[in-house]
Amino acid sequence: MLLLNYRDSRPIYGQIKDGLRRLIVTGALAAGEKLPSVRSLATDLAINPNTIQRAYAELEREGFIYSVPGKGSFASDRRPEDPARREELIARLRELVAELRYLGVADRDILALMGEGSGQ
User: Fold this and answer.
1) Under a CB-based contact definition with an 8 Å cutoff, are residues 75 and 65 in contact?
2) What pTM, to 2 d.p., does this model score?
3) Fewer CB atoms < 10 Å away: N or C end of the chain?
4) Number of helices (H) and strands (E), helices first, in the chain?
């Protein structure tokens, strides 16, 4: 499910948060699907439960997951409104497109790749 890279400069909770966000965005974790409990995931990854809790708290604050007291945390079925995140991703996409063009990838191939992500 999640892999941690201890050589990565990002903190562990950030890697967990990014990994879970990626699973939700790609549909690997479906809307309404239950996430592993904090303790269970902490045991699986051999890390402190507080690290998992921090990642879950940030994902909930961002709207990617929601929690139900006594039941657990679940992938959200709504898309979070986060203009700052949207702008950050658009800037990253522009950088990637510029680099792909520099490497000789044709615009039609870039567009085809982008269409793959939207299910077209």
Assistant:
1) yes
2) 0.73
3) C
4) 5, 2
